[in-house]
TrEMBL record:
Entry keyword Transmembrane: no
Gene Ontology process terms (BP): organic phosphonate transport; transmembrane transport
GO cellular component, one term: ATP-binding cassette (ABC) transporter complex
Organism, scientific name: Reinekea thalattae
Alphabetical UniProt keywords: Signal
InterPro entries from the UniProt entry: PhnD, Phosphnate-bd
Protein name: Phosphonate ABC transporter substrate-binding protein
Family to which the UniProt record says this protein belongs: Belongs to the phosphate/phosphite/phosphonate binding protein family.
Amino acid sequence: MKKLAMATVAVLGLSIAASASAAVDEFRIGILGGENAQDRLNNHECLREKTEDLLGVPTKLFAPADYNGVIQGLLGGTIDLAWLGASSYAKIWLTDADAVEPILVKVNVDGGYGYHSIGFARKDSGIKSLDDMKGKTFAFGDPNSTSGYLIPSIEIPAQGYSMEKGDYFGDIVFSGGHEQTIVAVANGDVDAGVTWADGLGDWEEGYNSGALRKASDSGIVDMGELVQIWQSNPIPEGPIVVRKDLPAYTKMQMTGLIASMQSMDSDCAYNMFAGEAKGVMPITHEAYTSIIEARKLKSN
């Protein structure tokens, strides 16, 4: 029995060593749109540094102008890891089911991993609900955003407000991202918009996490000047994914690094996850089948 145990340990050691020797020669992290590129790069620099130290290879951050830049990078093999929205993950899976695999999902302070699409307007606009939006301009973020387009484009019409241009809203526009939507509403360039938030905590702080929290933290917007006018049903938080063809050892290393981030460097975790979070937990493809079906419906 002792010899068998020693042999087993030896085989496991050889297996881990072989996996390690098959490691990548560089690592590339994609950052989904939602705020300006420099802020995205700054907020993820801590992850880049920790990844480079862990893997021992040059690590680069990529912050494309839109969601599709990260999607195409993962599909084309030029990005190795990214935190996606559920709709962006669905698009990748529908294009190539073998391109990426989900490894982790952000967990909110209440232990759940849901969030909401939030409709909002300026408080001085007099808009208090979608009933006040007839003939007005409504801004959405990105066609590949879950909360910034997919879910509201399904739920809002289901509640009786057509999203065909001119039917109910005066105009439907895409801002390019969550931060752009928030700025456009705050500046009065559009009448209302949608963005994302966990819906926990205080409105005055932009909730606990999400695009409103980041905008509030950075001073881009005064939440006291905005009012919520709509909220979606809970949406499953998007997954952190890795390219499926990465070495197993590299996947394990990155999963461990991100899983440890909250306890290892809470400031880095706060920046990565757009506010307060409990941490992360494992997630699988099955959590996103409903979002995949929603994307199929929108493509028909």
